[in-house]
Amino acid sequence: MPGSYVLIFFILVFATLLTYIVPAGEYSEIEDPLTGKMVVDPNGFHYLEEDASVGPMDFLLSIPNGMTQNNKTIFLVILMGSAFGVIISTGALDRAIDTMIRKMGGNSLAVVPMVALFMAIAGAFLSLGNASVAFVPLGLLVARKLNLDPVVGLGITYLANYAGFGSSPMNASTVLVAQDLAGLPPLSGAAFRFVVMGLIIGSTVLYVTLYAKKVRSNPAASVLDTIEWDGEIASESNKPCSGIDYIILLLLAAGCVWFAYGTTAWDYSNYHLVAILFLVAIISGILTQMSPDKIASEYIKGCKQLLSAGIIIGLATAITVVMEQGKIIHTIVHFAAEPLSQVNPGIAALLMYYVVTGFNFIITSGAIIVGAIIGF
């Protein structure tokens, strides 16, 4: 199985080749008489005469263009990881997890669904999206403490977050955007959406928990060939939580509550979360008597841990850059929409789900997918 960078590069090459096969096209826009907004005309698709195929130089430029186009998300992830690097280096989270596991005794595996449920709810109501990558080190810490594999650490953070993010009835970057474009009132069909969200989150948490239970019983059942841990993450700490540790944990919890309230009361974005975590990190370092140089050093270490994730986000964005430059996104949507227009609307709605899932494989932005698929 190729690594993440190689796999994304192959997809990028495939998307580039598609610009030579799929004809360029786009939907025209019309004014919605009810809202006065410009929306996609579902009957306004037309092919473009000019050649929009992506050449070798444009292919190479798509990588730096992808990095710069999604630079906000990349820096968001890296800076959140940096703050967590300082907080984790204090040992407070490490000792808190140890304490929780010891108190649970034989029920220590219950930590897995607890963390997964928290991340799923955060994804659903705080719309963390790619920013959830910064929480992966925390998930890895939990998995290591429970003698599980890194897949569990990824599952209880990143996978659980996207279970909530993807099924949220109030996701600002997907659901609310789509409802606005479609002329629907905000939170339309919220009751049904909450039921679906509950089913998706519940099944995800159950899946991760059952996998964790299987690996706990038999480490050879892991999907990984070998279970290896980074030396820094794997360092043991059996000391009980101190008063300073509890203060740090309280600060972290208060920061999350501050951000959650701010998203509804003051229109906070994920950048506010970065600022809040930075403040918590600095105070945590001071409370544990770290020198300024030590705080800076741990901050940079946290940055390095999430740097690869930021590069992956940039490479994935390059795929979207290529498809936009080649003017093939609307053409693909048109070809996918034509068969759906011939079937019952209810069936078409279900089939549309699988079409969007296919788009998600090569287009990583929920907002871009919403904008393209709204033409259905």
Main sheet characteristics: 2 strands, antiparallel
Helical stretch tally: 15
Q: What is the percentage of strand-forming residues?
A: under 5%
According to DSSP, the number of beta strands is 2
Q: Which structural class is indicated by helix and strand composition? A: mainly alpha
Question: How much helical structure, as a percent, in the residues?
Answer: 55-70%
Order the strands across the largest sheet as they lie in space. Answer: 1-2
Rg calc: 23 Å
Q: Order of helices and strands, N to C?
A: HEEHHHHHHHHHHHHHH
How would you characterize this protein structure?
The protein is mostly helical and 376 residues long. It has a domain at 1-53 and 326-376. Helices cover 68% and strands 5% of the residues. It contains 15 helices and two strands. The chain has helices at 4-21, 56-69, 71-89, 92-104, 111-126, 136-145, 150-167, 175-181, 190-217, 243-265, 270-287, 292-325, 329-340, 345-362, 366-373, and strands spanning 25-31, 38-47. Strands 1-2 form a two-stranded antiparallel ribbon. A hairpin with a 6-residue loop joins strand 1 and strand 2 (38-47). The chain is globular and about 70 Å long. Residues 232-236 and 370-376 have low confidence and may be disordered.
